[in-house]
């Protein structure tokens, strides 16, 4: 069997390409392979950001391989290695190069940032097949889209274009297909330029406080529930940043 996922390291950035013709649909074996890739990414201190995209220009991913997916083991991190990887403290950028349909859209929603080709399409056609998206996918959709638009996608199969995804804030960038990976790489490099412990602490705060009230978020901090934030505050990098600014030089991050 041809490897369904290819990876390429570019400095501190890992590029992950789903390549399973014809529609980059994900079966349990592919999901477990992706899980291995993202678990290794999480454990590698030299990797800071990942970019996930699909091969070709037509499909990011059509989601589940409906012929093979039922009852399968998708791996520790959930579908595609990401949908239930809740403690990953490094950002992942989804570079949407075509259709992000069903589970493919849920996979994109599990990423931190989405950059989209202008011809891309986002859709959730599950109800048409007599099934539903995963509950965590519905929850993410409701947190990322206006409620009425999210419900129209879920109930009626509304499709979003890349431009519409950008206009409503789902995608942070929309570019022509030819510029998609350059755009994703530039965004990844901008993240890598920042302190790694600060990025990890920010992701922790986003993950743990997004559904909390202001009082609850404050109480979480006061109780020591933000371990990454505490680690960042005590780090050498927290001293290096202000020092480099005062000395008018670029900071040298140590990740400690």
- Strand/helix succession: EEHEEEEHEEHHEHEHHHHH
Query: What's the CATH topology name of the largest domain?
Result: 2-enoyl-CoA Hydratase, Chain A, domain 1
Query: For the record, what is the CATH homologous superfamily label of the largest domain?
Result: 2-enoyl-CoA Hydratase, Chain A, domain 1
| Fraction in helix | 40-55%
Task: Give the N-to-C terminal Cα separation.
Answer: 42 Å
Number of strands: 10
Mean pLDDT: 93
Rounded to the nearest angstrom, the radius of gyration is 19 Å
What's the total helix number?
A: 10
How would you describe this structure to a colleague?
The protein is an alpha/beta fold. The protein folds into 2 domains: 5-192, 2-enoyl-CoA Hydratase, Chain A, domain 1 (Alpha-Beta Complex), CATH 3.90.226; 196-246. It is built from 10 helices and 10 strands. The strands form 2 sheets. Strands 1-2-3-5-7-10 form a 6-stranded mixed beta sheet, with helices on both faces. The chain has a 4-stranded mixed beta sheet with strand order 4-6-8-9. Strand 2, helix 1 (28-43) and strand 3 form a beta-alpha-beta unit. Helix 2 packs across helix 3 and helix 3 runs antiparallel to helix 4 (147-156). The longest helix is centred in the first third of the chain and has 16 residues, at 28-43. The radius of gyration is 19 Å and the shape is globular.
